Amino acid sequence: MAKALGLFSLGLGAPAAVIRVAGTENTAASRAVSRALGAREIASGVGVLGSRLPGRWLWGRVAGDAIDLSVLAIAALRHRDDPPRLLRQAITAGVVTGVTVVDVVAARRHAGGPSAGPTRARSSTTVRRTPDDLYRAWHDFEELPTFMYHLDSVRTSNGHSHWKAKGPAGGAVEWDAEIVEDRPGELIGWRSVGDADVRNAGTVRFVPAPGERGTEVHVELEYDVPAGAPGAAVAKLLGEEPGQQIADDLRRFKQLMETGEVVRSEGSPTGARSAVHLLDQRPARPLD
């Protein structure tokens, strides 16, 4: 697999061909960017093919994939009024995403790649409801997918819960969890148990806001990054990094508790903040 990816990198070193396939403008600036990206690909290919321990070079490919997706997202924003060109760029972004998954798999199979490690994420918001109201809503775990769009389902039984969530590149991750601290109206603490796909632990705290302006909701999460630092960078770009997800979840939780429903834009239904998902967004327009 590593040799195939090395040869693939060498093949991407031709800037003119990449410009034609990706649908970007054939300008001096785009040619300069393509030459720089092509030189990086050639260096990666030579490194992978010539090294006895290609793991680090493969992780370099993963980082390069993240750069490529960012460049494609910027190009798509510039060509949003050119549907044929935008379609080619969207297809190219899909291919690059698939290659990224293969790169991560290959890098993890070789020695010399970065090890997984714990990562912390946190976010907060203020909701105009009482701490008791918010505690009861959050404690109903099976209803969490109502505003946590990355969750597929949560099932509870005998004090434990089973979680199923969307993983990177359309995959799925599952884990069992238990409550480790539970103070009604104040705090819920949990941690994963057993052989979890992604080990995690966290807390959600409900603190009265100053001036009787509702309740501050603070979420803190600690989790193991499956593919180390490069995996975290790719997940963040793809909109699947927990820090991004927590912020979006809290925004929807606030809407749900204050208005009774989650407000969704027709032009950006998922509300993703990642660069690559900008390809799915468009100016909102009235329904027919």
Automatic annotation (TrEMBL):
<feature type="domain" description="Coenzyme Q-binding protein COQ10 START">
    <location>
        <begin position="129"/>
        <end position="250"/>
    </location>
</feature>
<protein>
    <submittedName>
        <fullName>Cyclase</fullName>
    </submittedName>
</protein>
<dbReference type="Pfam" id="PF03364">
    <property type="entry name" value="Polyketide_cyc"/>
</dbReference>
<dbReference type="InterPro" id="IPR047137">
    <property type="entry name" value="ORF3"/>
</dbReference>
<dbReference type="InterPro" id="IPR005031">
    <property type="entry name" value="COQ10_START"/>
</dbReference>
<feature type="region of interest" description="Disordered">
    <location>
        <begin position="261"/>
        <end position="288"/>
    </location>
</feature>
<dbReference type="InterPro" id="IPR023393">
    <property type="entry name" value="START-like_dom_sf"/>
</dbReference>
<feature type="compositionally biased region" description="Basic and acidic residues">
    <location>
        <begin position="279"/>
        <end position="288"/>
    </location>
</feature>
